[in-house]
Write a structure and sequence with these properties.
2 copies of one chain form a homodimer. Chain A is an alpha+beta fold. The first copy, chain A, has helices at residues 12-22, 25-35, 41-48, 52-64, 83-99; strands spanning 39-40, 68-73, 76-81. A 3-stranded antiparallel beta sheet of chain A has the order 1-3-2. In chain A, a hairpin with a 2-residue loop joins strand 2 (68-73) and strand 3. In chain A, helix 1 crosses helix 5 (83-99). The longest helix of chain A has 17 residues, at 83-99. The radius of gyration of chain A is 17 Å and the shape is elongated. The structure holds a DNA duplex.
DNA sequence: AAATTAGATCAACAAGAGTTGATTCATCAA
DNA sequence: TTGATGAATCAACTCTTGTTGATCTAATTT
């Protein structure tokens, strides 16, 4: 067990939630934006040109998938990307790719 | 340019299509099954206990995402997993994770 | 040629996801 | 305390996905 890999492996269910959350152009934009650093919602709406309730909806999807995290401060809510989530997904994908690399069985 | 990485990087659109295709429990089952080697559709319906038209629908989604490939032989159609697709997605994800690892900018 | 069989496709429906505008709640400024 | 602002939530609606059973086509067997 390497010192850099302390997270328990993703369950298929969580992996699917992450995949689904990321499979949307708008949400990917949000991810990329937050990749550049924490943002408050009002900045995001401006940056991405979205209606407030629309953004809120997508933030919820990302939040529930564990991809982002909210922190409230005063009147604002700041969101940041949970890069652990991306890592977990990477590991899960690697595991899947491994599993699927087995020698072909014949078709019976 | 490494000798092992000859595929052009995925476009965001293709990546999203892969993510979406994989974000479904049934389709993941198909992927895992094909990971064990090529199968014909009739074997898959048996193995997964699915109605023929239902499986056909999901195979189409996977096919259009580039995750699987069909080969017809006589009366049967054999599907195999395109492991390149999994690799491409891994690289794309790694790229995203990298891009999102930049030092936090402040919230203006 | 007629009967089977594998698998795609289609039409009708059911379920789920995304959008929009209105409402609500909390915090901050006057 | 009143007024304004940030952000979540809700209800109504639309759009997209998924399901089911039926039909269709091509290859195969008899």
């Amino acid at each position: 067990m390497g010192a850099l890999e302390h997270n328990p492996p993703l369950q298929a269910r969580q992996a699917r939630q992450l995949l689904r959350a990321m499979a949307d152009p708008l949400r990917l934009q949000v991810i990329e934006a937050l990749g550049g650093g924490e943002r408050c919602v009002c900045d995001l709406t401006g940056e991405l040109g979205l209606a407030q309730s629309k953004l809120s909806f997508h933030l919820k999807v990302l939040r529930e998938a564990g991809l982002i995290e909210a922190r409230e401060q005063g009147r604002w809510i700041y969101y940041r990307l949970r890069s652990e989530a991306l890592q977990d997904l990477q590991h899960w994908l690697a595991g899947l790719a491994d599993r699927c690399d087995q020698p072909a069985r014949g078709c019976n």
